[in-house]
Amino acid sequence: SRIQVYERENVCNQQRLLALYRNLLGLSASQISRTQWDADLRRLERGEIAQVVENLVRSERFRDRYDIVVRSR
């Protein structure tokens, strides 16, 4: 299950990050830029999971995938 990947003890941060990209953005490993991957992986390794998720769900790719319109204030 998508949820269980985060709870498994033997799952490394690379697998967790890839699961986030797949589930939130619909991206495969080959579609992720090396720069973005490295930055997000460093954040995960520092325990900044919430920041990684927040950046992904605020991305244009996420909004496009789920047809979310952001209105200006």
Note the main sheet. Answer: none
Question: What is the alpha-carbon Rg in Å?
Answer: 13 Å
Strand content: under 5%
Note the overall shape.
Answer: globular
Q: Topology as H/E string?
A: HHHHH
Helix tally equals 5
Quick tags:
globular, 73 residues, 5 helices
Question: Would you mind describing this structure in some detail?
Answer:
With 73 residues, the protein is an all-alpha fold. 60% of the residues lie in helices and 0% in strands. The chain contains five helices and no strands. It is globular. The model has no long low-confidence stretch (mean pLDDT 89).
Question: What's the short story on this structure?
Answer:
By secondary structure, the protein is an all-alpha fold. The chain is built from 5 helices and no strands.
Layout of SSEs?
Elements: H1 4-7, H2 13-25, H3 34-45, H4 49-57, H5 60-65
